[in-house]
């Protein structure tokens, strides 16, 4: 895999992106001069989490200021069909089309099958699987007119080992659903579609608050690992990444990255924490 282009002039529509990995991917794209629209519910600041859709747009503009990048903040909900249609329409009205859809919005709950509340189950599936399907299919008419359309979803490879099938089935179904929706729509439409996932956990609020607290956070790589890998996927020839579920580290190694210390959590002695669904 070799990178052949930049994202200059491309229009990206991303779900989520107020903070964390999604925001890092958006800012990396803006550095090339991409226009980025983000649809998220975060109109107001969360008491425990930094960032809103508006502050994210400001950060994206700042990251791409020298390259002429633009950003559009859209308050909306990927679970709602009208909201998603409005987001697609607003993006096209602002930037003239859509070249790339990034499915970043995701909910997580690691409750066991007998313990998880079905409302939490439904929430994960509404945001993760249904949201991915809905945003992608709503943007299809514009992706089809792009000279280089792409679909990128932040979801794991379909690892059917008993270890992962039995770990947390509710969450597994929702995340694997994202991957299946992405690869399925890609195969149907022949638009290059890729799922992307890290080998190790990433320093996000979810890791800090849900997956293991400060200890796991300390043993996680920085968000730039994901944003650099996403950039490499989105600038690679489409036929080399279409229909694949890739790991961030493999993508970066394929484009010549040999020193991963730039994504280090801060010390060479840290044993990195493996992410879910990766053996």
UniProtKB/TrEMBL annotation:
Entry-linked Pfam families: adh_short
Listed Gene3D superfamilies: NAD(P)-binding Rossmann-like Domain (3.40.50.720)
UniProt cross-references to InterPro entries, sorted A to Z: HSDL2, NAD(P)-bd_dom_sf, SDR_fam
Protein name: NAD(P)-dependent oxidoreductase
Organism of origin: Gulosibacter sediminis
